[in-house]
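User: For a reading group we're discussing how well predicted structures match intuition. Take Small ribosomal subunit biogenesis GTPase RsgA. Before you show the prediction, I'll give you the sequence so everyone sees exactly what went in.
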Amino acid sequence: MNNLSLYGWNDNLFQLKQNSAYKHLFHGRVSAVNKTNYEVIAEHGVLLCELSGNVLYGRSSFELPCTGDWIIFQPFDDNKGIIVDILPRKHTLYRRKSGTVSERQAIASHIDKAFIVQSLDANFSVRRMERFMFQVLEENIQPILILTKSDLEFNRHQVNESLKHIDRQIPVFFTSILSPETILPIRKFVSQGESIVLVGSSGVGKSSLINALCERTVFLTSEISKSSGKGRHTSTRREMVLMDDSGILIDTPGVREFGLASDNAEALADMLDVSAFAESCRFKNCMHIDEPGCAVVEAVNSGILEPEVYNSYLKLRKESWHFSTSEYEKRKRAKSFARISDEAKRIKKR
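Assistant: Thanks. Here is the predicted 3D structure of Small ribosomal subunit biogenesis GTPase RsgA, as structure tokens, for the group to look at:
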């Protein structure tokens, strides 16, 4: 028997289920997604579920179940079932699907917090952290930055300087699995029933961090490869882990590219400390590039705003605008197609 409240089930989700035509059936949470089926944690155990035709063909690809989704299913064997409905998502972490302009990919849903994991080695990248942080904040998920491998040699002052605009907004932890005392403070950010997703590049130590947080071997890892600097275990799917007397950890595969799936470019100004200067620009519609009287450019030229942060703002803003425009055009085409289809149906009835 599983106590689903430990996995995040609550009164709000119960009310959402009452709105479903399948409210009389069983519910559970997707713990892992395989190529052809879904692992679902239900009250009476773990099931392997497939999709009903209505779900498979009636929803777009990013609406299909992802790790963390709460679903309703019809059991048909001891450990098998058919997913017939998906409860509305909340706090879903998306990214732009690789190789597309505006297609979104759901990483995990019903998330409370996100551990942005970055290692203090050659993989260290403030720009990557900003990218993760922006997408997390867009979904009202609380971000926490965890810097791993602090046992390696690194310039602490240089790292702190590069993170000034970040650590003013979110908690930052320097950790090493070789020093258990650096892991203990992070456990305070995991409460019973909460769901935490871990995101970061391959090799930053997400699996090792989960093992340390759980104080047991959840994922097998081995020595760091001398050639790549990465652990030999690499997550290949999003997978849910229940901590003892605590919350849920969701491991995710490392990503080379984390494309923004956000159409709220203006929120970037707040996150990257640009908005405070933008208020003093001469023109309200200032683009902060080469307009006369631009207080943002002046802040960069005077050394108050870091050029790297400013350039990151311009790059991410452009990417967000591009996604927004492509998303708008896609919806516009869909509406036009729907109108043509409706008109064709009316003509046929005549």
